[in-house]
Design goal:
alpha+beta; 6-stranded antiparallel beta sheet; 5-stranded mixed beta sheet; disordered N terminus; DNA-binding
DNA sequence: GTACTCTGCGCC
DNA sequence: AAACGGCGCAGAGTAC
C-alpha cells in the first residue's frame, strides 16, 4: 500500500482528526426543569420584570451568555405559515405576536407586545449574548416584528444557535416533539394548547371575525409557549452546539435562506393563467368521459377496467406502454388526459406565489443537513426537483415571452401547452436587477466518488476521458440494434427518447454502485427479463467495477467492527472511519469521511439477522422513514451511498465557500449543483471556482469535472 | 379539522 | 460473498 492511504493513515494516526470543536460562547448550562410552575412565573415576570430578579439586576456575564426564545404568533389574515414559510409569514402585515417566552439565567419570562421590556432589549443589544431557538422561525419573527414593529435591535445570524440544526446534524427528527422523544427526554404534549393557537388563526365561522386575544387566552397560550422553550432547552442541553466547520456551513445556509432567490413574478402569473385554463379544460373533458377526477387513481382504474382496459397502476410509464396497444377512443383519451394531469409539477407555481416576498425573492427553500450525510433538502417550492425540460429551446427568453402572453396557443409550436409549461418551469427563477445567474454542477460526481474510493481507477479514467459510459450501459440494457450509432450521436442532438434511455443508463450505473441487486434492477428496468437483469448486475460486479463490491463489504465489516468495539475508531481500507459513540445517553454510530466531516446514525444497535446466507450481525439505527421515527437496517449499499454523498457534499460545500469568499452570493444548491447571482458571474468563473480540489480529493485521485452556464434565467 | 397512509411524480 | 438507493410534495382516502 505505497500510496495515498499510507500517507493518510500516517497523518491521522493517534485518533480522529477532529474538525469538530465547538467555537461559540460557552456551553449552555441551565436547569431543564424550572423551579417555579408555569403560571406563577408567567404572572410574576411579565415583560421581563421578574420578582426574584428585579429589572436592572440581570447582568449578562452571569446568565450563561444564552437566551432561549420561542414565539407564539398568529396571522389574522390569509397568510398561512406552512406554505408561506417563516420569512413570508413574518413579513406579512397581518402576522402578530401572541407571546414570547424567553429563558435566561435559570428563569422563564414572558413578553407580550403590550409593553416595552428593558431587560429583553438589553439582551438583544448585547453582542455577547447568544439567542437559542428551534428552527429559523424565531429569527424571522425577530427580524420582521421585534425589530420592524417594536424597535428591538437586530440579532445577526452569528448570534443565533438553532437546536433544529443540531438535530439535523445528529440525524434526529427535526420537529421538536419527535426530537425530544427520540432522545428519551420528557415531552409535553399540550394538544389543547395547540388547538387553541390554531383556532386563533381562523376566523369565526359565523361572524367571520378573528378571535379576540383576551388576557385569559394569552395566559393559556403562554403556558403552551413555555413548554416549547423547555423542550428547546432540553435539546440544547443534550446535544450542545454544532462543531466548528458545521457551524460555518449552517451560517452559510442561513445566509442563503435569508437572501432568497429571485422570482420572475410576471412569468409565474402568466404560466399559472395558462396552466389553470389548460387543466380546467382537461379535467372537464375527463369528467364528461368518466364522471371522475383524473387524480382519483383507484376509481379511474376501476373505470378503465369496466371499459375493457386493465392496468396494474396509473403510473406514467404504464400508461405510456398501454397507449401503444389498441384501445377504445374513450379509454385512450382518458389515459392521455390522466398522464398529463398527473404531473403535479405546475403546482410549484402556487408554491412560489405562496412564499415569495414583496421584493420578488423566495426565502427558506433549503433545509440545512436535511439528509443523513449532510446534503440540503428542498422546502416550500422544493427547488431540488424542478422537471428537466423535455422541450428544448435555444433561447429561453423566446419561450418566456410566449408564456407571458398568457395564451396557450402561443406555445403550441413547441408542443402540447402543459408539457411546454412544465419544461419551462425553471425559468420562473431569474436573476434580479442587472445580475446574472451562474450555475455549475459536478458531472457524474457520485459515480466518480464511488469508483475513486474503491480504487477502481481504470473506470474513473474512463469517465474522465469523456466517454459516455451511461449510454454504453443503456445500449446494453435495451439491446439497441445499432449501438455504435447510438454512441455516436451528439449529446445535444439527442431526441427526448434517446436522452431518457441514457438517463436510465445513468441511474443504472449509480444504482449498481450502491449495491442494487438484480431483482431490484429487473423491477425497475426490465420487468420480465430475469436473465438480462442478472447478466447486467453480474457484469457490473465482476467485470466492470469489481473493486466496488469490495468497498461495500469493507464498509459494512468496518461498521460492524465499530459496533462490536464501542469507542474504538475502526478504519476501512478507503480511509473512512467508524466509531460507536455515546451522545445524550444514546448510542450513535459516527462515520467520519476523508476530510474529517462526521455524520451520524442515531440509536445504532447490532442485531443478529437471519438472511439467505445464514445468521449474521447487522447494524440497525433509527431514522425518519415515511414520516416516522423507526428502526432501519444499514445494509452495505446504504452505508456506501451515505459515504459517497457525504464526500460529494463536502466538495460542494467547499465550492460554496469559495464562491462566497470571492464575492459571488450563493442562492441555491441542488446536491451536485451550485447557483450564484452576481452581475459579473461567467461560465468560466464558475468552472474555475468549482474545479479547485481539496487535498483529500487529490489523494484519492478523484477528478472533478464541472459543467457550467450563466444567464438571466435558471435552466438545466 | 387534523393526522396518517398510500399512490404517484419529480430530482439527484 | 451479499438486499431494499436517497429526498419532498400533492392529492385521495381514511380514522379520529
Amino acid at each position: 500500500m505505497g500510496h495515498w492511504l499510507d500517507r493518510f493513515i500516517a497523518r491521522t494516526q493517534g485518533g480522529v482528526t477532529d474538525n469538530d470543536t465547538v467555537d461559540i460562547a460557552s456551553p449552555f448550562s441551565c436547569p431543564a426543569q424550572p423551579k417555579d410552575d408555569a403560571l406563577s412565573t408567567v404572572s410574576l415576570s411579565v415583560n421581563g420584570v421578574a420578582v426574584k430578579t428585579p429589572q436592572g439586576v440581570i447582568s449578562h456575564p452571569e446568565v450563561g451568555h444564552t437566551v432561549v426564545v420561542d414565539f407564539e404568533t398568529r396571522n389574522a389574515g390569509d397568510c398561512k405559515l406552512k406554505p408561506s414559510g417563516a420569512w413570508r409569514y413574518a413579513a406579512d402585515p397581518a402576522t402578530e405576536i401572541l407571546t414570547l417566552t424567553y429563558h435566561v439565567a435559570g428563569e422563564y419570562h414572558l413578553w407580550t407586545p403590550a409593553l416595552p421590556c428593558p431587560p429583553l432589549a438589553s439582551l438583544a443589544a448585547d453582542p455577547a449574548i447568544t439567542f437559542v431557538s428551534h428552527a429559523g422561525f424565531e429569527q424571522a419573527i425577530w427580524h420582521h416584528l421585534m425589530v420592524g414593529r417594536y424597535g428591538f435591535l437586530p440579532i445577526p445570524v452569528a448570534r443565533w444557535h438553532d437546536t433544529q440544526a443540531a438535530c439535523a446534524y445528529f440525524a434526529l427528527p427535526l420537529d421538536l416533539e419527535r426530537a425530544l422523544s427520540a432522545l428519551n427526554l420528557p415531552v409535553t404534549k399540550d394538544k389543547e394548547g395547540r388547538r387553541l393557537v390554531l383556532s386563533l388563526a381562523r376566523p369565526n365561522r359565523k361572524t367571520g371575525e378573528f378571535p379576540e386575544i383576551t388576557p385569559e387566552i394569552r395566559e393559556r397560550v403562554a403556558a403552551y409557549n413555555r413548554a416549547d422553550v423547555e423542550g428547546t432547552i432540553a435539546i440544547e442541553t443534550a446535544l450542545g452546539r454544532l462543531p466548528k466547520r458545521e457551524r460555518r456551513v449552517w451560517g452559510l445556509d442561513q445566509t442563503i435562506n435569508q437572501r432568497g432567490i429571485g422570482i420572475d413574478l410576471d412569468f409565474v402569473h402568466a404560466a399559472k393563467k395558462i396552466a389553470d385554463q389548460q387543466f380546467g379544460e382537461a379535467i372537464e373533458e375527463f369528467r364528461k368521459l368518466t364522471d371522475l377526477n383524473p387524480t382519483q387513481v383507484e376509481k379511474v382504474r376501476n373505470w378503465l377496467c369496466e371499459n375493457g382496459t386493465e392496468l396494474e397502476d396509473l403510473r406514467a410509464e404504464t400508461i405510456e406502454e398501454t397507449l401503444k396497444i389498441e384501445l377504445s377512443p374513450e379509454a385512450r383519451r382518458v389515459l392521455e388526459i390522466r398522464s398529463r394531469i398527473a404531473s403535479t409539477s405546475l403546482k410549484k407555481l402556487d408554491a412560489i406565489l405562496a412564499c415569495v416576498g414583496s421584493d420578488g425573492r423566495a426565502r427558506g427553500l433549503l433545509q440545512y443537513h436535511g439528509a443523513t450525510p449532510g446534503r440540503w433538502v428542498g422546502r416550500l417550492v422544493q427547488p431540488q426537483n424542478f422537471p428537466r425540460p423535455s422541450v428544448t429551446i435555444e433561447d429561453p427568453e423566446e419561450l418566456v415571452a410566449a408564456i407571458k402572453t398568457g395564451d396557450a396557443d402561443a406555445l403550441r409550436k413547441w408542443g402540447e401547452p402543459i408539457e411546454v409549461l412544465v419544461s419551462s418551469l425553471r425559468h420562473a427563477i431569474a436573476a434580479q436587477g442587472d445580475a446574472l445567474l451562474g450555475a455549475g454542477d459536478f458531472e457524474t460526481i457520485e459515480a466518480r466518488v464511488v469508483l475513486s474510493l474503491a480504487s477502481q481507477h481504470d473506470k474513473v479514467e474512463l469517465l474522465e476521458s469523456g466517454a459516455d459510459v451511461y449510454r454504453d450501459v443503456a445500449a446494453d440494457i435495451f439491446r439497441l440494434d445499432d449501438k455504435a450509432a447510438y454512441l455516436a450521436i451528439d449529446k445535444k442532438e439527442m431526441t427526448p427518447e434517446q436522452s431518457e434511455t441514457r438517463q436510465i443508463g445513468k441511474n443504472t450505473v449509480l444504482g449498481c454502485g450502491f449495491g442494487l441487486g438484480w431483482k431490484g434492477f429487473r423491477d425497475k428496468y426490465c420487468k420480465d427479463d430475469d436473465s438480462l437483469a442478472q447478466r447486467i448486475i453480474n457484469t457490473y460486479r465482476t467485470e466492470w467495477a469489481p473493486k466496488v463490491p469490495q468497498l461495500w463489504y469493507d464498509l459494512e465489516r468496518t461498521a460492524i467492527r465499530a459496533m462490536q468495539n464501542p469507542g474504538v475508531i475502526v478504519a476501512a481500507a478507503c480511509g473512512v472511519r467508524y466509531r460507536l459513540e455515546t451522545k445524550a445517553e444514546l448510542p450513535f454510530l459516527v462515520c467520519q469521511v476523508l476530510n474529517g466531516k462526521k455524520f451520524h446514525y442515531a440509536n445504532a444497535q447490532l442485531e443478529m439477522r437471519e438472511g439467505d446466507w445464514g445468521k449474521r450481525p447487522a447494524v440497525t439505527y433509527w431514522a425518519i422513514k415515511d414520516h416516522h421515527w423507526r428502526k432501519v437496517f444499514a445494509w452495505h449499499g446504504h452505508l456506501t451511498e451515505n459515504v459517497v454523498q457525504a464526500l460529494a457534499r463536502e466538495l460542494l460545500v467547499d465550492a460554496m465557500f469559495r464562491f462566497e469568499e470571492r464575492g459571488f452570493p450563493v442562492v441555491l444548491t441542488v446536491h451536485d449543483e451550485i447557483v450564484v447571482e452576481h452581475p459579473a458571474i461567467t461560465e468560466d468563473l464558475v468552472k474555475e471556482i468549482m474545479s479547485e480540489r481539496p487535498q483529500w480529493a487529490v489523494e484519492i485521485e478523484l477528478p472533478v469535472a464541472v459543467e457550467a452556464w450563466s444567464g438571466r434565467r435558471y435552466r438545466k
